[in-house]
Amino acid sequence: MIFKAVREGKPYPDHGFSSRDWANVPPRSVRLDQLTTIKRELALDKLLDEDSTFYGDLFPHAVHWDGEMYLEDGLHRAVRAALQQRHTLHVRVLDLDELRPKKPAKRAS
Questions:
Q1: What gap in Å lies between CA 77 and CA 106, rounded to an integer?
Q2: Name one Pfam family in it (predicted).
Q3: Which residues pair with 69 in a beta bridge?
C-alpha cells in the first residue's frame, strides 16, 4: 500500500492559504504511508509529464487535521516517488490542529 488511505474530498475546513502562504511553510520529510489522499483519480499524462511542477511549487502540500495528514496537492509527485521505490517525500505541511483555537479545559465541580 502506497498511502494510508484514499478518499474523495477534504474533511477539513477551508484554510484559505494562497501560493504565497504555502511558500512560507518549510518542507519536511513525510512517509507516504502516513498520507491520506483527497483525490481518487490519477491523470496518466500528468504522472508522466517531466515538467509538471515547472510553474508551481516543487513540494506537495499536506494538511494535518484531527491527527491525520491529508495530501492536498502533489498526488502525482507522490506516486512518482513511490514508483521510484522512495518511501518518503518532502512535503509542506500545514498543521490546522496547531492553528485551531484551544478549548478551555472543563473544571470539575
A1: 44
A2: VapB
A3: 35, 64
CATH number, span 5-99? 3.90.1530.10
pLDDT digits (tens, 9 = 90+) for 62-104: 999 999 999 999 898 899 899 899 999 999 999 998 877 666 5
Q: 27: which 3 cell numbers?
A: 518542507
Dihedral (CA of 41, 82, 31, 15) sign: negative
Q: Which three-class secondary structure string do you get for the chain?
A: CCCCEECCCCCCCCCCCCHHHHHCCCEEEEEHHHEEECCCCCCHHHHHCCCCCCCCCCCCEEEEECCEEEEEECHHHHHHHHHCCCCEEEEEEEEHHHHCCCCCCCCCC
* The model's pTM: 0.82
**Structural domain boundaries of the chain?**
5-99
